[in-house]
Specification:
Layout: H1 3-16, H2 27-32, H3 37-66, H4 73-78, H5 90-112, H6 114-120, H7 131-142, H8 147-175, H9 187-201
Helix pairs in contact: 1-8, 3-5, 3-7, 3-8, 5-6, 5-7, 7-8, 8-9
Length: 210
């Protein structure tokens, strides 16, 4: 594994396969929290933290608890004849891990920055059901990433999510003072801008990283 592979994974997750604008995951907080830049940055940092830790923990759980290998913890502890195949439990196991991490982040944010906690509102605990978090954990396994690559992918996916969120927040702040039709104010113009941003990021699809 070289730096070139790490670089390709990072660039791909941030620009080419951006979780929000290319994979269309995490749309709920993307629209709901992108009303101002401060909330967008706060949510982005929380998502990066959760994605990174989720990538680490879920990879370890899959490798040492769910897969039928001789390093399976249950196989070693119970001295079973064959390693148990528990991969069918990965979705529920990953959701439990993500829920625990989000609960931890929520408590920290509430303690450190009550104003940010209040501005994020319901969207902070909703990270638990954010499909982007579960998506990065499952994609790490589908792509057969090792531990280091999974961490890099998690960090880069979080950065890509934050980039999309902050860009949208900046645009929406400008639109608040723009003379747009009344029927388009609020969510309608936000969806239009999201579509235009997706088209813009589509230009990265032809990027070849070597």
């Amino acid at each position: 594994m070289g730096l070139n592979e790490i670089f390709i994974i990072a660039i791909s997750a941030i620009f080419i396969n951006n979780f929000v604008l290319s994979r269309f995951l995490g749309i709920c907080p993307y629209i709901g929290v992108s009303k101002n830049i401060d909330s967008a940055v706060g949510m982005g940092m929380a998502v990066i933290f959760v994605m990174t830790l989720a990538s680490m923990v879920t990879w370890l759980i899959d490798a040492y608890m769910l897969r039928p290998t001789t390093s399976n913890i249950f196989y070693i502890i119970f001295s079973a004849k064959e390693p148990p195949d528990l991969t069918y439990l990965k979705t529920i196991a990953f959701i439990l891990v993500i829920a625990s991490l989000v609960q931890f982040v929520e408590m920290v944010v509430q303690k450190v920055s009550p104003s940010l906690y209040k501005s994020l509102g319901i969207f902070l605990p909703l990270i638990t059901t954010n499909c982007a978090i579960l998506g990065v954990a499952l994609l790490n396994l589908d792509e057969n990433f090792n531990f280091i690559k999974s961490i890099v992918h998690g960090v880069a996916a979080g950065i890509g999510f934050t980039l999309a969120l902050v860009l949208m927040a900046g645009i929406r702040e400008k639109l608040e003072m723009a003379p747009i039709p009344k029927a388009l104010k609020g969510i309608p113009i936000a969806f239009l801008m999201a579509g235009l941003m997706s088209i813009a990021f589509l230009g990265f699809s032809g990027l070849k990283v070597q």
